[in-house]
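Section 5: illustrative case.
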């Protein structure tokens, strides 16, 4: 993989309130640090995670959108790839494929489950996403994607159709 591909991309690992074990989340953050110029871990249990010093750790800010804001404000890279820690099976191929997708304000990767689409990861242009974030804590991802004219893409569109079964 071309190192220049990810030189302007930061990785953000978002921990849900019922977060994974700290060692697992720490290992995931360490894998991300091998791919991205910066990595931040944001979530309720983030301060307890043992990660190398070069990985930023921030406490949860409350709502999903507030947590996203903390992640975007913490890093300096032009683009930020956001992965929920609930998807610890994220493959390097998924992260790299999303980072290589043609740049847009926002791109969200989803898989189609039996009853609903599942969000796997997203990449945002940091400044545009920060400007578009609604201060309303009840705002949701759909509203943000609409304001950013973001695109939803499938694993198949990224050339990763073989990961669909794993993601559902």
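Designed sequence:
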């Amino acid at each position: 993989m071309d190192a220049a591909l990810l030189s302007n991309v930061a990785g953000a690992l978002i921990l849900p309130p019922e977060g994974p074990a700290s060692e697992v989340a720490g290992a995931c953050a360490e894998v991300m640090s091998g791919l991205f110029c910066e990595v931040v871990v944001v979530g309720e249990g983030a301060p307890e995670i043992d990660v190398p010093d070069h990985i930023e750790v921030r406490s949860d800010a409350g709502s999903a959108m507030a947590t996203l804001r903390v992640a975007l404000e913490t890093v300096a890279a032009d683009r930020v790839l956001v992965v929920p820690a609930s998807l610890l099976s994220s493959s390097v191929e998924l992260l790299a494929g999303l980072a290589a997708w043609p740049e847009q304000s926002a791109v969200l990767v989803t898989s189609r489950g039996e009853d609903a689409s599942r969000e796997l990861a997203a990449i945002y242009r940091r400044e545009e996403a920060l400007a578009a974030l609604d201060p309303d804590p009840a705002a949701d991802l759909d509203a943000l994607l609409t304001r950013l004219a973001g695109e939803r893409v499938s694993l198949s569109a990224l050339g990763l159709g073989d990961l669909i079964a794993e993601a559902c």
